Amino acid sequence: MGFKNSIIWMYFSSPRNFYPLAGKLIPWFAGLAAIFAIVGLYISFFVAPPVLSDQKEYYVIIFIHVAAAWMSMFIYVVMSVYAFIGLVWNIKMSEMMATALAPTGAMFTFLALWTGALWGRPSWGTYWVWDARLTSELILLFLYIGFMSLQSAIDDPRRAARASGLLAIVGVINIPIIYFSVRWWNTLHQGFSVTPTQTKQLVDPAIFWGMIIVALACWMYTIAVVLARVRTEILERERQTSWVQGLVGGQK
Amino acid sequence: MNAIADFFHIGGYGFYVWGSYGVTALFIAIEIYLVVRAKHTVTKRLARLSRLNNKVS
To answer: What is the distance between the alpha carbons of residues A50 and B6, in angstroms, rounded to a whole number?
Structure first.
C-alpha cells in the first residue's frame, strides 16, 4: 500500500470522518442489493431448471441457502479481522465495525440453518441431524450470540471490545471446520458443489449464476445495513465529542 | 392451467420453499426496521441530553 492509501485509511479510521462517508455509501449499496436481488431471484425461479437430477422442485431453496451460508462464514471472518485490528492497533472504528457486523452475521447463520432444515426435510426426510456441517454451523451461531452477549454484559465499551474481540479471534478456528466438514467427515450434507476449478462441469450455468448473484445481493445488503448500524454505534460511543454534540444538537 | 397458482405451488413443495424465502424476507425487513429505529432513538436521546447540558451550563 502506498503512502497516499495509508493516509486515506488513517483519515477514515477516525469515526468523525467515517460517519459521513458511511452515510453517503448506504444508498449505493442498498440500490445494488435491490438490483442483484431482483436479477438473482428472477434467475432462481424462472431461468434455472425446475428440478436438479434427483432433487425435485424444492431444490430452488439452494439459492438463498448457499448465499446465507456463505455470508455467515464470510461475515465472521471479516468481523474477526476487524476485532483483531481493533485489539492490536487499538483502533476504535475497527471495534465498532466488528460490533456492527455481528447481528447481520448471526441473522445469516440462522437463515442458513433454517433454510437448510426446510431443504433437508423433503430431501433427506429430516429437518435436523447432528452432522458435522450442521453442528459446526450451529456452533457459529453460538459464537455470534456469545460475541454479542459479551459486549452487552460489559459496560465499558473498550473492555467490551477487547473481551469480545478475543472471543471472535479464537472462534475463527470454526470457519475452516465448517468449510471442510463435508470432506473431513462422512456427512449427510452434500459435498462441495461450487469450487473454482470444477464449477462448469458440475452445475448448470443458470444455477451457478443464480447462486452468485443472490450471494452478491446479500453481500451488498450486508454492507448497507452494517454501515447504517455502525453510524448509530459511532453516535453512541462518540457522544461526548463536540462534533456529535453539534450534530445531534442541531436536530430537534 | 393456472400459471400463478402453479408458481406458488412449486410442485407441492410450496411450504418448504416459501418458508425459506418468506422467513428470509421477514428477517431482512425486521433488521432494517430495527436499525432505522435504533438510529432514531439514539439521535433523539442524544439531542435531549445535549439540550439538557446546554441548559445546565
So the answer is: 12
Inter-chain residue contact A60 with B10, CB threshold 8 Å: yes
Q: How many domains does chain B have?
A: 1
Residue B14 maps to a domain: no
> What are the φ/ψ torsions at residue A185 (nearest 5 degrees)?
-120, 160
pLDDT tens profile A61-109: 999 999 999 999 999 999 999 999 999 999 999 999 999 999 999 999 9
Domain with B29, as residue range(s), is 21-57
Global pTM reads: 0.92
Query: Among partner residues B17, B24, B46, which is closest to A235 by beta-carbon distance?
Result: B46
A201 touches chain B (CB under 8 A): no
Do A167 and A143 touch, CB atoms closer than 8 A? yes
* Chain A with chain B: Cβ pairs closer than 8 A: 85
